[in-house]
């Protein structure tokens, strides 16, 4: 029998770690994944591409997302879609937490 559903506070499910990026996978299915991240100030994910669309939702702090070389500044409560096969990068001008939802189907 599977575990009963329970209410969680997303911000509290992942903690900052000095000089690091911390991630916690909440769901990982063949059709997609949901992952929480906590970025310490100054941390970044270098430019890369993914074969699927992904949504970034900022839970706390402020993030800079570059998509095809264009920078976007996102604050708490804001989201952006990173299109499949477009180069993107994530950086932390300050500490921030985000939820990444990747959809692995067309």
UniProtKB/TrEMBL annotation:
Alphabetical list of Pfam families matching this protein: Cupin_2
**UniProt xrefs under CDD domains:** cupin_HP0902-like
Domain (Cupin type-2) ranges: 36-102
Q: Gene3D superfamilies under this entry?
A: Jelly Rolls
| Family annotation (PANTHER family) | SLR8022 PROTEIN
Name of the protein: Cupin
